[in-house]
Amino acid sequence: MKILILHRVPYFKIEYHRGIDHVLHDVTYFGTRDALATLPPGLRCTQVERPGERSTFEEACTWLDGAPQDFDRVISMSEYELLDAAQLRERLGVDGAPVDQVMLSRDKVLMKSAVEQAGVRVPRFMPLTAFIDAGGTTPWSGATVLKPHRGASSVDVVVFDDQTQAYEAVAGKRSGVAELDGAEAALSDYQVEEFVDGRIRHFDGLIEQGKVLVLGASEYVGTCLEYAQGTPMGSFQIECSDETRAWVGRALDAVQIRNGSFHLEAIVHRGELVFLEVGNRVGGADVAATFELATGVHLPSCELRILLGEPVTDSLSAAPEDRSWYGWFVYPGHHLSGRTFEGFDGADAFRTSPETVTWHELPLGKPLPDHITYGAGETALAGIAVTDSPQETRSWMVRLFESLRIRTSVPAVPDMAAR
């Protein structure tokens, strides 16, 4: 089988060799120089470098126009390139999810519309263009969220006290979102929705031909939005009831996610799950690692086998009866971009704690990232913890966040006059 992989996620996060036999199949990795640099030495494959100046689809078309060839599969494991992969499949006549189907799990307005029609509660929402045309009038009152249709990691998400404040900010080009505050505002790429208060959970697992094979539930400590603003966050695994499993199944069916991994987020509001968003991909941070530790199931490699048409049901490990409860945590550094990492105060007891499974701290003297990232080796700290119960894992994580204090310094500016 000839397989084209749109390669964006660092190789170590996916471990493609665990899901694809690179001797049996002819695998081509298409990505930027930095992305291709993450491929392990000696891996049997073809590497095609793209400039990274236009969309992946456009640059793939240019490459294929100059070197025409066919593929049996076109795969992306990155949320940012799922649509590019679908477009390429349609251009090449390759099996897999088409553009219209992928759009349901990428565009948050289409997504929530489909889920709502299936009878699953969602936050009330409006496309931003309709919100502006209505003069800021909405079916709800109170806190209002401004967010992009296809965003991730809470980039360009802003919460306003009410819809009037949101309307005045957008209309006055002072929303805080550069794309909206510029001369040519991209209103059609954004939406507003009511702010629904409550704990946020994420549900992760595998689906094959519309059947959920394995499902895990977790609850966040902190939120993605708070992380984007500079606050540490994490999540801890919790029990998943049969009622919740059925709810997840209805949401996945509504957005036509039928094969691969999924990462679904919901708000627990007054005891009821409220759908927030879903992706046809593996969750970020250490979601895959904690899932495998708890269940024995490696989501990325299982997803790859499903996408290749290789059934995985019989090979899935049974979850241990006397299980441990894992959680992942990240401490941001992007909000301190331009500064150098000098370590943490309050970290010593946690580095060597028996609950600590992994601890990836940025090396001293390294610059902090200039973009939002959950990745180990990029952000100030990323790790995994384990205890004997969900509540213990949560409590350990809360204590960690309360104890940590990041130390930074400003890099010295070279004295040009001395040269």
Structure in words:
- This protein is α+β, with helices and mostly antiparallel strands and 419 residues long.
- The protein folds into three domains: 2-96, Rossmann fold; 124-194, Dna Ligase, domain 1; 199-409, 2-Layer Sandwich (D-amino Acid Aminotransferase, Chain A, domain 1).
- Helix 3 (56-66) packs parallel to helix 4 and helix 6 crosses helix 11 (242-254).
- It has helices spanning 11-14, 33-36, 56-66, 82-92, 99-104, 108-117, 128-133, 163-171, 178-181, 224-228, 242-254, 287-295, 299-307, 348-351, 390-403; strands at residues 2-6, 26-31, 46-49, 73-76, 125-127, 144-148, 158-160, 190-194, 199-208, 211-221, 233-238, 260-269, 272-279, 325-331, 340-345, 356-361, 381-387, 405-409.
- Strands 13-12-9-10-11-14-17-16 form an eight-stranded antiparallel beta sheet, sandwiched between helices.
- The model has no long low-confidence stretch (mean pLDDT 94).
- Helix 1 (11-14) links the parallel strand 1 (2-6) and strand 2 (26-31).
- The longest helix has 14 residues, at 390-403.
- The chain contains 15 helices and 18 strands.
- It starts with a strand and ends in a 10-residue tail after the last strand.
- 28% of the residues lie in helices and 26% in strands.
